[in-house]
Amino acid sequence: MNRFSLALLHAALVPALAVGLAAPASAQSGKSDAPSASAAGSTQATQGYRALRASKLIDKSVRGVDGKNIGQIRDLIVNMNTGDVRYAMLEFDPGIFKAEQLFAVPTKELRLAADGDDLSYNMSKERLERASVNKADWNTALKDRRYIDRVDKAYGVMQPSRDARAFRASELIGKDVMSRDGKDIGDIKDLVINMATGKVHYAALAFDPSWAAPEELYAFPLKAFNLTADKDELVLDVDKSKIQAMKKFDAQRWANLNDRVWVADVDHYLITVTGTADSPATVFARLDDDKNGVLSETEAKGNTGVRSAWTQLDKNSDGKVSRSEFTSNYKMER
User: Fold this and answer.
1) CATH number where 240 lies
2) Tens of pLDDT, residues 292-323
3) Owning domain of residue 297
4) Beta strands 199-207 and 218-220: pairing type?
5) What pTM value is reported for the model?
6) Is 327 inside a domain boundary?
């Protein structure tokens, strides 16, 4: 994986997250972290983006199309190279399949209810039977790739590079992160997944107390973490002296992951630092509140990067930007 430039990290993190990754004002003042009326409205308007923590997805119940519970998610398979959450591992309720088996289900086939609570899945027994693994073999199934290769073929998924490393989300959560000189500098507390794209938006990292306060969390894309030669250890190439200059957030943010301002600022950070933010088409869909295929200047205000680039995007100065105009011209801003 590409490694971060320390100078770039320092230069980009300070301005890019001035709003989004700062600790909430309520954390400093002691006031409630409930969003304001305008912020609440912005959250509801963020229609394309549906964030969930990996830790909340694991053991979450799944319903069938008839609304009845069919099983629980036991884990997630994450591609460290791309951030794709390729599969959720489901354990079905007794009577549906043989006991002591897990089944890989493409994450993008899971449907999240409007309230962000319930997950549903329209299952196909034929496909699932080709994507099963014995629970006793689950911990080792990913390491020899044969299981993942079989599942990819069953679902017609393009297989990634052989250099890719598949991790269980449960393995990444709590996993130690090493410095470039091999010292333990912290651990991953959780992964924030955009259910709309089936990708990890960012990992929440807590640094060792000798580096930063334990309650402070830092957002990093998965591409920021290098894998050691044996592909078992995570390495973050960052200088301790730069940590205090980085903007951080705390646990109160978990309740407002879909806040529009927050999402826009994290996107801006990812673009500035690594170029790993969502595609222009995904950003457009997120901002197009009325779903008419055209962005107004008012809708564009929901994203700081788009707002600042509006003049270049609205080339004919008619106050609106079509999907094709946005997709072509927003790439220039990435």
Assistant:
1) 2.30.30.240
2) 889 998 888 767 678 878 888 888 889 999 98
3) 280-333
4) antiparallel
5) 0.69
6) yes
